[in-house]
Amino acid sequence: MGPFAWIAGHPFAYPLLEVLHIFGIAALVGNLLLFELRVWGVGAQLPLAPLAQLSLGVALAGFCLVAASGLLMFASQPTELIANYAFLVKMGLVAAAGTNAAMFHARGGVARLDRVARAQTALSLGLWIAVIIGGRWIAYL
Ligand code: HEM
To answer: pLDDT of the chain along its 141 residues, tens only?
Structure first.
């Protein structure tokens, strides 16, 4: 029994972590969707740079909340989750989405929205949706 095992059986702690996880997902994916729609030309009257600064800033804060709550949930039952195929696939997808985001910004980010960058934003949305599917599937395996 690890130091965080009490969380898994606690009547409030684990559900509260799931609530924080879902709130973080909403902030992350909701703001990425807003930014990516603008990159694809939706809401073209909105100035891109300030919109990107706000939406990507909130998305990053959302990811930090998701990662913190997710790691605590993981630490409460690591053996079970390591054996859960959906959890492993989801973590692989989180790594792929993170790598795609890092490459987008390394290429110049908002200052260089060429065809490759737009393709990366489409890939980003697809990967985060796949992460959500993987996360939801954890409970069914
Ligand atoms: C970054 C590290 C992350 C870790 C360590 C992590 C870990 C977890 C764990 C342990 C669960 C609980 C499984 C259960 O008991 O049912 C979970 C659920 C979930 N995760 Fe994550 N997660 C992470 C990131 C994400 C991200 C980035 C997303 C979406 C963009 C996401 C989406 C979900 C969803 C949709 C659920 C199901 C929530 C529910 O049914 O209440 N996770 N995650």
So the answer is: 788 999 988 999 999 999 999 999 999 999 999 999 999 999 999 999 999 999 999 999 999 999 999 999 999 999 999 999 999 999 999 999 999 999 999 999 988 889 999 999 999 999 999 999 999 999 999
CB 15 within 8 A of CB 118: no
Whether 67 lines ligand 1, by a CB cut-off of 6 Å, is yes
The pTM for the full model equals 0.91
Ligand 1 centroid, distance to 52 Cα (angstroms): 25
Q: Is the shortest distance between the CB of 27 and ligand 1 below 6 Å?
A: no
